[in-house]
Amino acid sequence: xxxxxxxxxxxxxxxxxxxxxxxxxxxxxxxxxxxxxxxxxxxxxxxxxxxxxxxxxxxxxxxxxxxxxxxxxxxxxxxxxxxxxxxxxxxxxxxxxxxxxxxxxxxxxxxxxxxxxxxxxxxxxxxxxxxxxxxxxxxxxxxxxxxxxxxxxxxxxxxxxxxxxxxxxxxxxxxxxxxxx
Length: 181
What we know:
Blueprint: H1 5-22, H2 26-42, H3 46-51, H4 57-68, H5 73-84, H6 91-105, E1 108-115, H7 121-135, E2 139-146, E3 153-158, E4 161-166, H8 167-180
Pfam family, one: OSCP
Keywords: ATP synthesis, Cell membrane, CF(1), Hydrogen ion transport, Ion transport, Membrane, Transport
Subcellular location: Cell membrane; Membrane
């Protein structure tokens, strides 16, 4: 049975996270994975190249040696296992799963904040602090989204929860209440 990329990513990411915790190296491994994520963004076809059946084994190995040259220990071994099992194109999913577990361990919430106008950095940081407090996390990292259709206020989505304080939502609620009378 062939597994989808998300399932593969979850399994490998979980295994790497558990190994990193066991070796008390979660922070170091996470930093190296961030570097790998950047490399994957700079060379988006890297995973496809390393799994391409048209390339000779020696060619792939040369590319892999260049790729893993800057890493050592757990991360290098992880990359070699991923390469050996022909899963290099699933690396971003593996990194995402590791990061999800790492953030959960460090009580960091990720989410979005939607506003009608762009937020200043100061307001964004203020909102992140409030969201972290409301959801019981030590820190929140919110990606700003501008959507003029909400008219005003904010919509925060984090930790699989939504706080809708938008003016559009409030007006729709008022309309619904008035139409019932």
